[in-house]
Design brief:
The protein is built from 18 helices and 35 strands. The chain is of the alpha+beta class. Belongs to the WD repeat WDR24 family.
């Protein structure tokens, strides 16, 4: 209401003026129509049938056509049309299948004139002939179109489309006898009213129902159609076959389409659902609307230009129970808010970038594109068309080529062919795939497979590496095969050490990262990294020695018998620990009997009974010595997401299949399905059909496993009588011959069968290949020159 612009249009002796305005209706509108002189509009719906006057400042209700205490279903309208030749004549399509005409010149309150009840189902559309006063056409849900002469009480012609329901009928503006009809099966038919027995032309216009059509008011052969496939198509009907000349892609199903008066290239559309806006398109620029009216809050059900020679005023009704008059100058222009830059990747990995020439020319660092190196040396610049109402902006296009090596996908193809996803044990699959990735110079992927083997392999089935191999990359022990020795306090072996030694065994139990960080000491580190926190148990005043955090290897027997000396290695070997912990009194007795105990060790062993009890109670492991597989699942889940986000869905899907139930429950089904579909699409693009089928078979997603079960029907004709075979076997029902007999050996083919599509003869693959080495004619003797690809 605040849009106060006013326009006055001169139309011969009359003038149209007004502004953007609206009024509230009593009920939602299904259709609207305007009278010939553009001063009144009729609004029809299930519960409304009124005429409003169009004044400069507002809508004024003139007449309510729903009269009577109990209005019948004849007042429930699906469509309405005001005759453009006779100002007092209206026609409505009722939801009960009736076609009703109304005479506004009647003196009585009830203006109903004639009632036609020949249709069996809802009438979707009514249309008056543009020049004949008494000719009315209707299209119904029952699939029939009827032509009525209003001077008679029944239809004069019935047209059967031999199809589903009729959604729209429109008389041609230029051809007196021609009308077009659109159907729910996607077809459009052209009829001559003089020949009701058969249509003149039929063509498939849309994939799905065609909801509307409209003849161009000026160009004789142009027909616009709109359908559920979200497209508006313009057809040239002057040729022998209907030719699509323009196509506009919208964002929702198209319910109404109306050509804009006095503008050859413009048409208005509204949607049947989802989208509430009205769009005006320039069919030469189909990618963005020329103008948009955004006033309605619900689906727009009817649009009509106020006058057939006035392009500035548009009327619309909606399910939000409002009637609007839109002034074109108040429309929003999406092109003003559109992104002026464009970006697109080419088939060979090149990147094209288009932007305003003023932006690019202002970049001082931009190097000119060498003409000799440009892969696309020819660019066509569109000449300015002064008749277009778009802003003319010069843009520059730059093409950036990628290096040949960066866009090669050989690694993808080789990886897909060489990866093993099933058929061997988990460890063998990981080792094989790691080797494949390493040979293809993909070290990160190779390391990932190795780590997966370490994390999820069963330690019971693997041998422990030798003591001299700790820290070497080739024989890295499995993480789950690490077993902490029982932390018993064996006093005899401890007290056999020399007097000058001062060592304490560190009992430091801590879960989490400190465990993982301390299980792989290498020769490069002088000390094993310990935990960040303080130890929970301290024995005496001595400090803890981090070197003895865990015992990694058993020492050999000869080393145990020798006198203990300070080791030269960075990681000292530990003595054998007794399995049986002793009572505190034994500890005190052993300490008193041993003359070799050093002072520091004596301090450690002189414990109170309570302290000794604590020592004994923690001498056994407080948790399982093996990390369970679920411990690593969050890390693996993040790793798979990382690979997928980087574009390597091959790695994500391969790991998903190999790990199976170990990780599958950690990732939601929609994400898995998305990864599978992306990988399968890539495999099929590279024509890796066998690999694609294997991935589909190994998948556990129901939406994926059904992919190789669709479109698998094979229709076979008998090679003898050429008739279609039944599905009950390989014996023809007509000639009783076996259809799968080899033309070379004359035996039934069980398994792979190859045949010529020209003569239908074939046989065993090897037999046919050997035959064609010496002869190009069919081995069955039919004389056909068979070709096998």
């Amino acid at each position: 209401m605040e849009k106060m612009s006013r326009v006055t249009t001169a139309l011969g002796s009359s003038a149209i003026s007004g502004r953007t305005m609206f009024c509230h209706l009593d009920a939602p509108a299904n259709a609207i129509s305007v009278c010939r002189d553009a001063t009144q509009v009729v609004v029809a719906g299930r519960n409304i049938f009124k005429i409003y006057g169009l004044e400069e400042e507002q809508f004024v209700e003139k007449l309510n056509l729903r009269v009577g205490r109990k209005p019948s279903l004849n007042f429930s309208c699906a469509d309405v049309m005001w005759h453009q030749m006779e100002e007092n004549l209206l026609a409505t399509a009722a939801t009960n299948g009736a076609v009703v005409t109304w005479n506004l010149g009647k003196p009585s309150r009830n203006k109903q004139d004639q009632l036609f009840t020949e249709h069996k189902r809802t009438v979707n559309k009514v249309c008056f002939h543009p020049t004949e006063v008494y000719m009315l056409l209707s299209g119904s849900q029952d699939g029939y179109m009827k032509c009525f002469d209003l001077r008679k009480k029944e239809s004069v012609s019935t047209f059967s489309g031999q199809s589903e329901s009729v959604r729209d009928v429109q008389f041609s503006m230029k051809d007196y006898f021609t009308f077009a009809a659109s159907f729910e099966n996607g077809n459009v038919q052209l009829w001559d009213i003089r020949r009701p027995d058969r249509y003149e032309r039929m063509f498939t216009a849309h994939t799905g129902p065609v909801f509307c059509c409209d003849w161009h008011p000026d160009d004789r052969g142009w027909l616009a159609t709109g359908g559920r496939d979200k497209m508006v198509k313009v057809w040239d009907m002057t040729t022998n076959r209907a030719k699509e000349i323009y196509c506009v892609q919208t964002i929702a199903s198209v319910a109404r389409v109306k050509w804009r008066p006095e503008r050859k290239w413009h048409l208005a559309t509204c949607s049947m659902m989802v989208d509430h806006n009205i769009y005006v398109w320039d069919i030469r620029r189909p990618f963005i609307p020329f103008a948009t009216f955004e006033e309605h809050k619900d689906v727009t059900t009817g649009i009509v230009w106020r006058h057939q020679h006035d392009p500035y005023f548009l009327l619309s009704g909606s399910k939000d129970s409002t009637l609007y008059q839109h002034m074109f100058k108040d429309a929003s222009r999406p092109v003003d808010r559109a992104n002026p830059e464009g970006l697109c990747f080419g088939l060979f990995g090149d990147l094209a970038f288009a932007a305003k020439e003023s932006l690019i020319s202002g970049d001082a660092n931009r190097k000119p594109y060498p003409g000799g190196d440009r892969r696309y040396p020819i660019f066509f610049f569109k000449k300015p068309d002064l008749t277009e109402q778009f802003a003319h902006v010069s843009s520059a296009l730059s093409v950036f080529e990628s290096s040949l090596e960066s866009k090669r996908m050989d690694w993808f193809v080789k990886t897909a062919r060489l990866y093993l996803l099933s058929g061997k044990s988990f460890a063998e699959l990981c080792d094989h795939n790691a080797k494949v990735a390493k040979e293809l110079n993909r070290p990160q992927v190779s390391t990932t497979w190795t780590m997966l083997r370490i994390m999820f392999s069963d330690p019971a089935n693997l041998s422990t590496p030798g003591p001299n191999h700790i820290g070497k990359l080739g024989t890295l022990p499995l993480m789950n095969s690490f077993s902490m020795k029982e932390m018993g306090m064996g006093t005899e072996s401890r007290l056999d050490r020399s007097k000058g030694e001062s060592r304490q065994d560190n009992i430091h139990l801590e879960l989490g990262n400190s465990l993982i960080n301390n299980i792989c000491p290498t020769a490069e580190n002088e000390e094993t990294e310990g935990s960040e926190g303080q130890a929970e148990y301290m024995f005496g005043d001595a400090e803890l020695d981090d070197d003895d955090l865990y015992s990694m290897e058993h020492d050999n027997q000869a080393a145990e018998e020798q006198e203990y000396t300070l080791p030269q290695e960075a990681f000292p070997l530990r003595h054998e620990i007794m399995d049986n912990p002793l009572a505190p009194e034994h500890l005190q007795q052993d300490k008193a009997d041993s003359p070799q105990a050093s002072g520091n060790e004596a301090e450690v062993m002189c414990l109170t009974p309570i302290e000794s009890f604590s020592l004994i109670s923690i001498s056994q492991p407080l948790f399982s010595p093996h990390l369970p597989a679920p411990f690593f699942c969050p890390v693996v889940r993040e790793m798979l997401s990382h690979y997928a986000e980087q574009g390597d869905v091959q790695m994500a899907v391969s790991v998903l299949i190999v790990l199976g139930d170990r990780i599958r429950k950690e990732i939601d089904d929609l994400t898995q399905e998305h990864w599978y579909m992306s990988y399968i699409d890539l495999l099929q693009r590279f024509e890796l059909w066998n690999v694609s089928n294997e991935v589909i078979k190994l998948s556990t997603c129901s939406a994926i496993t059904c992919l190789n079960q669709t479109s698998t029907t094979l229709h076979v004709n008998c090679s003898n009588c050429k008739r279609p075979m039944s599905n009950r076997g390989w014996i023809c029902d007509r000639c009783h011959q076996c259809a799968s007999v080899c033309a070379v050996c004359h035996h039934v083919v069980k398994g792979l069968f190859v045949w010529c599509q020209g003569c239908s003869h074939g046989g065993h693959l090897e037999h046919v290949k050997n035959w064609l080495k010496s002869s190009s004619h069919c081995p069955a003797g039919c004389g056909h020159l068979c070709e096998y690809t």
